[in-house]
């Protein structure tokens, strides 16, 4: 029996789409977490290699495999609980649809990941791609109460729960978040929500990178606490010069007070321009979506006092056309065209500065060569390898975790 | 056997010096409990290393001999998690108490595991910074213990539990290998092994260097005390506050039994003795005007949801007094009876009113006194059962009541522990929460870090409840489903007991 026939027999005719992928790999869309488990259990038995897809709009769907497993049909929202500020959501739902459903219930997921609006939540969690809101609300893992994932041999593993604090057992949620699918397919996510902000204000300032870096330092020194504080390259912001965008979100009193403090800290009233709501929405959306249009995107984790040095290094080694940096936390996202050799050289340079580079998206040949993470520190490789064997004993998942270097 | 024991003690003394190895029974008995009085295990040997190098040497020695060991901080834990059996060595880390670095520009600190929680904030204060996780035991508990348990505290409602604040770790694995996890920025070099390590209750190794995030000390603070005539009303007010969109730094609740215990103690805080419950709330931030406005909004919400009165602390002294009553409540409850069982369940916040009533019903049915003091904003309950363990049959009733309380919390969509950890105390509840696959997955992960299961054995995962995990492997050897023999016949020599 062929692979397609076997899958159809397992999950039904409508679960398999043979013609949809550009590389001719059959795409399978299980309709439930149990169906995902059934499929992967069979993959283990048959020795099939599998790539995980969400909406297919972030990581290129080009890994060489026997079948593509898409979470697109796992798009239900079993629970939104405004009183508890928590939600239980299937991983295949698009972020735009989820955002709307949450807003209808007066709630908000304070994450603004890069990528197209319809990017799946599971993809955001699996790749741990936070956006500018990381400044005020933390990284992806800080929004997770728990996840359920399916291992490479078809076991459903629940981790965490739907309550605000939980230390019952080891925190496997942390392993699933940012694991790039190496440990399993995330099928269900329990989210920590916030109340929809009563006020949401974005202010921008154009200038040279050096000028804006100084303004950023002034903001930090004045203990202004923005929700987002982002330095964008001219191409990304679609401006003549670099753009510093500062966003406040919360109660009206908070936003008003923070804006006043920002203006006081940065040399008086007129320097920053306050954007209308539609302008602000367009700015943040454009910035997020731009990274889905670049062939390569990576993030680096620096420190606030090294932001300038790291931006110089990026400019020197790979160019600085598409950059979004959070000077308050030291994180930088880069998008553009580059080569495997340049990426390797940059990663080595950064490693010398104790700064990790995580490759977020690139074509399979680049991912396979460079890896999402590259080489590990001494002693860590065997741990990661052991964890991968634990959760994917037959190496069903084709994920370029370490790369070929 | 005795010779083995003696040679082990001699080898440990060779590493740390004889005065830092405790072998006499009276000395070892002082380590037989943690903060939870219901579990008692006397360790075979206690060793107190004074440096990371000594920790590494000890762990390598124990690995070579196949001897189990248990890492321990100040011993303030509330789950029986840092107790060692007679066949194990207790590695006490309180001498590793140096703050290695405070970096005010990047808001981070590097500390050894034995640094007492509150000391770090005190050291960072001149730079306008603090270490946010603030367990009630923060004047005694250590950062290393906080990492092992993923400790919480009142102010974790707004700022997150320990895991949120740990950026990087230097860890000594069970075989003595040293690995560095995470980075100063918090961006991992690979999968998030820091996140996995935090809260692993010592099962994955010993953290010898801990890099944490520091936060600015809030420039503006408002502390509010609201009192209620009914427990249910107070629970409903919690949900209303949370739904308002204003996130308090802390939102704590105490019931009448707890209020009276505090007011009868030296920690009396001025809580109204006739209240069925009080809520203690704190709002903070960088902007005075915003915090003041939010405090007014919250006060209005509390009044609208049944608060008899809302008092705002007039000054730092009153604020401190209100908080002291809350933080010392467990100590004050010691006045109620000889023994105390401390629970640590978490429920969805909206379930608080119903669950609190259920707990009261269970207490009534078993004829027990239950006092509630807890992190209401997180839904993190601490129903505390006071009893006298000398009364025949009473402990069994307490155990049954505890089980029913846990079952009620799980039925409400909750969990069995929010910040104290599983340890020994909640092992029996794990199968109520996780199926065999999830438990087996946890055990398999533990085997990657500790293939012989020698580090803090017998805690967290009830091995009997694990389904077989076919993919279970050891990190380096690649052996599937095999356990190396662990020497469990080590005993401290009789002569040591008589020292």
What attributes does this structure have?
heterodimer; A: 405 residues; alpha+beta; eight-stranded antiparallel β-sheet; five-stranded antiparallel β-sheet; 14 helices; 19 strands; globular; B: 499 residues; seven-stranded antiparallel β-sheet; disordered C terminus
Structure notes:
The complex is a heterodimer of chains A (405) and B (499). In chain A, 34% of the residues lie in helices and 22% in strands. With 405 residues, chain A is an alpha+beta fold. In chain A, the strands form four sheets. An eight-stranded antiparallel β-sheet of chain A has the order 15-12-14-13-17-18-16-19, sandwiched between helices. In chain A, strands 5-6-10-8-9 form a five-stranded antiparallel β-sheet. In chain A, a hairpin with a 4-residue loop joins strand 5 and strand 6. In chain A, helix 11 runs antiparallel to helix 12. Chain B is an alpha+beta fold and 499 residues long. Chain B contains 18 helices and 18 strands. In chain B, strands 15-12-14-13-17-18-16 form a seven-stranded antiparallel β-sheet, sandwiched between helices. In chain B, strands 5-6-10-8-9 form a five-stranded antiparallel β-sheet. In chain B, a hairpin with a 4-residue loop joins strand 5 and strand 6. The longest helix of chain B is centred in the C-terminal third of the chain and has 18 residues. The chains are: A alpha+beta (405), B alpha+beta (499). At the A-B interface, strand 9, helix 6, strand 11, helix 9 and strand 16 of A face strand 9, helix 8, helix 9, helix 11 and helix 17 of B.
């Amino acid at each position: 029996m062929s692979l397609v026939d076997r899958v159809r027999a397992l999950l039904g005719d409508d679960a398999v789409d043979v013609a949809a992928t550009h590389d001719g790999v059959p795409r399978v869309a299980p309709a439930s977490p149990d169906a995902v488990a059934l499929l992967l259990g069979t993959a283990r038995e048959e020795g099939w290699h599998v790539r995980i897809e969400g909406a297919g709009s972030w990581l290129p769907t080009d890994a060489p495999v026997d079948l593509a497993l898409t979470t697109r049909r796992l798009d239900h929202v079993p629970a939104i609980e405004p009183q508890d500020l928590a939600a239980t959501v299937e991983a295949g739902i698009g972020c735009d649809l989820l955002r709307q459903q949450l807003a209808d219930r007066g709630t908000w997921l304070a994450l603004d990941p890069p990528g197209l609006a319809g990017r799946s939540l599971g993809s955001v969690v699996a790749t741990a791609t936070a956006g500018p809101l990381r400044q005020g609300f933390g990284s992806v893992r800080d929004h997770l109460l728990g996840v359920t994932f399916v291992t490479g041999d078809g076991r459903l593993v629940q981790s965490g729960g739907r309550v605000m604090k939980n230390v019952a057992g080891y925190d496997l949620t942390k392993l699933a978040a940012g694991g790039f699918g190496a440990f399993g397919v995330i099928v269900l996510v329990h989210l920590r929500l916030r109340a929809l902000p009563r006020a949401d204000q974005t202010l921008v300032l154009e200038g040279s990178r050096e000028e804006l870096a100084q303004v950023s330092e002034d903001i930090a020194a004045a203990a202004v606490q923005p929700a987002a504080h982002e330095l964008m390259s001219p191409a990304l912001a679609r401006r003549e010069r670099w753009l510093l965008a500062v966003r406040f979100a919360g109660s009206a009193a908070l936003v008003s007070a923070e804006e006043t403090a920002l203006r006081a800290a940065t040399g008086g009233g007129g320097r920053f321009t306050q954007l209308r709501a539609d302008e602000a929405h367009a700015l943040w959306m454009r910035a997020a979506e731009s990274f889905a249009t670049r062939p390569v995107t990576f993030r680096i984790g620096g420190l606030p006092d090294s932001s300038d040095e790291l931006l110089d290094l990026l400019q020197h080694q790979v160019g600085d056309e598409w950059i979004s940096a959070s000077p308050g936390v030291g994180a930088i996202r880069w998008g553009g065209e580059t080569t495997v050799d340049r990426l390797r050289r940059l990663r080595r340079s950064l490693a010398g500065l104790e700064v990790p580079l995580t490759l977020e998206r690139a074509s399979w040949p680049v991912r396979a060569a460079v890896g999402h993470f590259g080489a590990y520190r001494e002693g860590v490789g065997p741990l990661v390898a052991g964890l991968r064997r634990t959760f994917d004993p037959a190496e069903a998942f084709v994920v370029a975790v370490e790369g070929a270097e | 056997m005795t010779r083995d024991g003696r040679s082990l003690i001699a080898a440990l003394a060779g590493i740390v010096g004889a005065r830092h190895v405790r072998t006499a029974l009276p000395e070892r008995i002082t380590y037989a409990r943690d903060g939870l009085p219901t579990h008692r295990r006397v360790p075979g040997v206690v060793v107190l290393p004074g440096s990371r190098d000594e920790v590494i040497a000890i762990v390598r020695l124990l690995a070579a001999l196949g001897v189990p060991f248990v890492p321990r901080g100040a011993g303030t834990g509330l789950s029986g998690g840092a107790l060692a059996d007679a066949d194990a060595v207790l590695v006490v880390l309180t001498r590793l108490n140096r703050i290695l670095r405070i970096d005010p520009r990047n808001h981070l600190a590097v500390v050894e595991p034995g640094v007492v929680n509150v000391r770090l904030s005190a050291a960072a204060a001149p730079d306008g910074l603090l270490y946010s996780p603030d367990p009630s035991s923060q004047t005694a508990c250590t950062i290393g213990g906080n990492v092992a348990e993923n400790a919480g505290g009142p102010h974790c409602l707004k700022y997150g539990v320990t895991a949120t604040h740990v950026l990087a770790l230097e860890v000594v694995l069970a075989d003595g290998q040293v690995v560095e996890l995470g980075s100063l920025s918090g961006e991992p070099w690979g999968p998030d092994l820091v996140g996995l390590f935090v809260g692993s209750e010592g099962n994955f190794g010993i953290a010898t260097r801990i890099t944490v995030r520091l936060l600015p000390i809030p420039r503006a603070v408002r502390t509010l005390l609201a009192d209620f005539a009914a427990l249910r009303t107070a629970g409903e007010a919690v949900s209303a506050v949370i739904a308002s969109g204003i996130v308090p730094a802390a939102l704590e609740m105490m019931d009448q039994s707890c209020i009276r215990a505090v007011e009868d103690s030296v920690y009396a805080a001025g809580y109204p003795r006739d209240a069925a419950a009080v809520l203690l709330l704190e709002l903070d931030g960088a902007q005075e005007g915003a915090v003041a406005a939010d405090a007014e909004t919250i006060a209005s919400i509390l009044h609208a949801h049944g608060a008899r009165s809302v008092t705002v602390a007039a000054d730092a002294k009153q604020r401190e007094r209100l908080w002291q009553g809350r933080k010392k409540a467990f100590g004050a409850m010691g006045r109620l009876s000889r023994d105390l069982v401390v629970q640590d369940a978490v429920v969805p916040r909206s379930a608080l009113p119903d669950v609190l009533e259920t707990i009261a019903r269970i207490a009534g049915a078993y004829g027990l006194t239950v006092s509630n003091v807890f992190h209401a904003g997180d839904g993190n309950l601490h129903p505390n059962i006071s009893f006298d363990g000398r009364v025949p049959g009473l402990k069994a009733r307490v155990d049954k009541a505890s089980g029913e309380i846990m079952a009620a919390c799980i039925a409400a969509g909750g969990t069995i522990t929010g910040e104290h950890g599983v340890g020994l105390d909640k092992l029996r509840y794990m199968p109520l929460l996780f199926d065999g696959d999830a438990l087996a997955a946890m055990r398999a992960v533990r085997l990657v870090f500790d293939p012989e299961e020698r580090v803090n054995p017998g805690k967290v995962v009830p091995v009997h409840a694990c389904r077989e995990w076919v993919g279970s492997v050891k990190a380096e050897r690649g052996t599937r489903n095999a356990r190396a023999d662990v020497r469990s016949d080590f005993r401290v020599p009789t002569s040591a007991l008589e020292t």
